Structure formats: C-alpha cells, structure tokens
Amino acid sequence: MTKRKGKAALAAAVLTMALHAGSLQAADEASSLEGASISYDMATGVITAEGDVLLQHGETRIAGAKASYDTKTQQGEITGGVIAVSDAMRLTADAVRLESFDAIHATGGAEVTKDDLHLSAASLSVFDKDRYVAEGDVRAVKADKTFTGARAEFTQSTNYMLIPAGGTMRTADGTFTADRMEGWLTEEHYRGTGNVHVVSPPRSFEGGGDRIDYFAKAEDGKGKCVLDGNAWAYQGNNMLKSKHLTVYLANTGNLASTFGQICICKQGNGYRR
Questions:
Q1: CA distance 28 to 207
Q2: CA 202 vs CA 78, 199, 248: distances in Å
Q3: pTM over 0.90
C-alpha cells in the first residue's frame, strides 16, 4: 500500500494505477481522485482519500469529506456533505454510493435539481442522468406542480412521473390524491387509481372514485376528468353518482366556475346539465 499527503499523491496514485489493468481510466473518459490524504492499495486497486475530496469522471464532479474508489470495478463511496454536479444536474446528500457513474445512489437528506425539477427524499438514485427513483418522504416539484408520497419515480426524457405507493399532486387549482398515481407531464394527463379524491376550491368542485383520468388538454381544446368505479362529482349544491362520470372542463383547461358550464355524462342514457 502507498500513502501520500496532499495533491502530490494524486499524480503518484494516478500514474501507478495507469500501469495496472484496474486503472482510473474508464473506457471513454478519465477519472481522478483528489484529497488532503490519499492511500492506494496496489493489490486490491482501492484508493481512499480524506479531506476536501474531489472525484471527477468526465463532466461529473463529486465532492465530500471522505471517499473510497475501486479502480477495478469503478465503484465507490463518498461521505460527508456530498455535492455532485453533472451537466445541469446538482445532487446533495450525506453519502453517495457509486454503482457506476451512470448509477448513483444518495442517502441522508438527498436533494437533486435539474432544469425545472427539484426532488428531495431520504434516499435517491439517479440512473443515466435521466431516471430518478426516490424513497422516504418524497417531495418532487416539477414546474408548477408538487408531488408527494412514500416513493416516486421520474424519467426526464419522457416526462413521466410514477407514485406507486400513494401520493398527492398539488397545483394552484387544488389537490389530487390516490393510492397510485401516474403523470404524463408533457401531455398533461394524470391518472389516479384507488381511493381517488380531487378537490378544487377555486372551482368549488370535488370528485372521487376508484379511478380518475384527468386530461388538461383534450382533442377539442377542452380538458376533461373521467371518473370510474363508485364515481361521484360535486359542485356547489349539486352532486352526481355513477359507475362512470365524465366532467368536461372550460377552454382554459380548468374546471368551469359554475355547474351549468360542466357537462356530466352518465354512462348509458346520459345526464347533461
């Protein structure tokens, strides 16, 4: 084992590792590890660092108090006020474990920001800088919408949000809760399954059922809310119940402010107001 102090150890360690099969040189991008104190085990290929640690790989930079990195497997761990930056993404946590540079797992007050996404949770994994899996007191803010739940999965390339174990979506227009929630954010299509409940105080509207599909953008330029299974809809003093209800929305994509502007269609012979 070799142990050096200061940044001079970096050059020695990298040079030594470059002479071995398990070097810090990845297939397409170089990696480096800096620290106030660095140790390198030539037998195992594991390098450890303490004090102002900085691990770099291509455009990815991960800073912390301590780090260990296996040059053979390209797996590692960074602890102590970790800050990871890669392109437009910024991740902070108490600890980060590298399965690879394309699979980063953060624990302890994990938070990530990228573009208009802000995601926080007890633990957070990032795959290919595109897919996020968060668990434990999850809060995700995407543009003007806030999602909360025990677990959330978000894929940025497809703009798809999944909250599989119960959650809530909040907007300026109201709240949407369900046992399972999905959101296709580009299409503004949101689906809730199991104990679904929608409340919109600005519209004096409330609805629920076993399943709801909310379309902010429909083919006719209007939005609609489709409620199935023990469905009910309420606005003002008016209430309807059915196995299937469709609530058409105003041209703005919001629920109409008066009941007379809403068409509620009952499956079968139909009901219209």
A1: 54
A2: 47, 9, 16
A3: no
DSSP string for residues in 204-241: TEEEEEEEEEEESS-TTS--EEEEEEEEEEEETTEEEE
User: Which residues does residue 99 pair with via DSSP β-bridges, in sequence order?
Assistant: none
pLDDT digits (tens, 9 = 90+) for 104-139: 999 999 999 999 999 999 999 999 989 999 999 999
User: What are the φ/ψ torsions at residue 180 (nearest 5 degrees)?
Assistant: -145, 135
Both tokens assigned to 29:
């991008």
CA angle 183, 88, 150 (to 5 degrees): 40
Cβ atoms of residues 101 and 108 within 8 Å: no
Provide the token pair at 24: 């810090």
Both tokens assigned to 94: 């108490």
Reply yes or no on whether the pLDDT at 185 is more than 50: yes
Instruction: State yes or no: pLDDT of 159 exceeds 50.
Output: yes
Architecture in CATH for domain 1-86: Sandwich (2.60)
Report which residue type is found at 229: G
Residue 92 has pLDDT above 70, yes or no: yes
28-48 residue pLDDT tens:
567 788 899 999 898 998 999
Between CA 170 and CA 271, with CA 209 as vertex, the angle to 5 degrees is 110
The answer to whether the beta carbons of residues 166 and 179 sit under 8 Å apart is yes
Domain regions of the chain by residue span: 1-86
Q: What is the CA radius of gyration of the chain?
A: 25
